[in-house]
Design brief:
alpha/beta, 344 residues, signal, ABC transporter substrate-binding protein, 5-stranded parallel β-sheet, Rossmann fold, ABC_Transporter_SBP, ABC_transptr_periplasmic_BD, 5-stranded mixed β-sheet
């Protein structure tokens, strides 16, 4: 069966056959773990598709690190049948739980790798992981009775309430709490992170640059082949900036992480720079030290006051994308602005 699948049996058919033949072996006790309430029937929209559940999933697969860490934060490792696409090290607080979860793919999971995990729930931070040449389309999975969840942050156009990116992230927690019967734990997480957002923005109204205007910031995410990638308008850093009272210098670019030139960075002349440290990812130009060196070596950027005066804040790069860790980067941003004198 597996050998034939590699040479052309459609993913939907192969997964259907696998789920049909393994259904009996996975149909174990449906009760929630000790100390947790059982889930009630849940139904809601997820990135344009309606999902419904009459029992908590028992074999969830997370297609990326963000989804994995969200499920682990909710204590769902015993309900996980797989994880994939790890980009950096798992934080210490999740390592014991993560060790219990099978890794179905070190990078982006294919349909065959997902099939082998026999999931009854699949989760991804972005919809682009659900394609025919990756894990399979959401339509294929839906036809097999496998709900495919996408973070609400990736689909703001489907949010009729017009919520902020952080609120969309918190809605993910609450939806997952409904699905898995962890409403109390998910609600507590959302409340704690809402409080962290509020604390980070407590002094936003008083944030000023030296000439009295709102301070501007460039978020340097990565340097690839010598070219900088910065935060545009549609990424989470734009919302982070608003919360702390700053202005993203590239908020006129409608992309998450556009490639720009060093000349464009210099032309924006930001009051300060946030460097995303991606040392653990290990690609050339990923570390904070390499990004600092690149700026120091550029004949134009090196003359910026933000570089000369070391008005630079370092944060973990992975936390600049929406995840359960993002409020930590937001706190570092708020604290860094205070240290630099932009908030009193």
């Amino acid at each position: 069966m597996r050998q034939r699948a590699r040479i052309g049996i459609p993913f939907a058919l192969v997964l259907a056959l696998t789920l049909a033949t393994t259904g009996c072996s996975t149909a174990t006790d449906d009760r929630a773990p000790k100390g947790e309430p059982a889930a009630r029937t849940a139904a809601f929209g997820s990135c344009g598709r309606q999902l419904s559940f009459d029992r908590p999933p028992r074999r969830a697969v997370a297609l990326d690190q963000t989804s994995t860490e969200t499920l682990l934060e909710l204590g769902l490792q015993d309900r996980m049948a797989g994880t994939a696409n790890l980009k950096t090290k798992i934080p210490a607080q999740y390592q014991d739980a993560y060790a219990k979860v099978p890794v179905i793919a070190p990078k982006i999971a294919t349909g065959e790798q997902l099939r082998a995990a026999t999931p009854d729930f699949v989760m991804a931070a972005s919809g682009d992981l659900y394609t025919k040449d990756r894990a399979g389309t959401r339509e294929e999975l839906a036809a097999l009775g496998v709900p495919a969840f996408v973070s609400a942050v990736d689909c703001p156009q489907h949010d009729e309430a017009g919520r902020t990116p952080f609120e969309l992230l918190f809605s993910d927690y609450e939806r997952l709490g409904e699905v898995f019967g962890r409403t109390e734990r998910a609600g507590r997480l959302a409340r704690e992170q809402r409080a962290a957002v509020a604390a980070a923005g407590a002094n936003a109204a008083g944030a000023t640059a030296r000439d009295g205007r709102r301070p501007t910031v460039v978020y340097l995410y990565s340097v690839f082949n010598g070219m900088p990638y910065v935060a545009g308008r549609t990424g989470l850093p734009g919302e982070m900036s608003r919360i702390v009272g700053a202005k993203n210098a590239f908020d006129d670019v409608a992309e998450d992480w556009p490639e720009v030139s060093w000349e464009q960075v210099a032309a924006r002349d930001p009051d300060f720079i946030v460097i995303g440290d991606l040392s653990e990812r290990g690609r050339p130009g990923d570390s904070a030290a390499e990004k600092r060196a690149a700026m120091a070596a550029d004949p134009v950027v090196s003359r910026l006051a933000a570089v000369r005066e070391n008005r630079i804040i370092e944060v973990p790069g992975i936390e600049l994308d929406p995840s359960v860790r993002s409020v930590h980067a937001l706190g570092l941003l708020a604290a860094g602005m205070k240290d630099l004198g932009y908030v009193r």
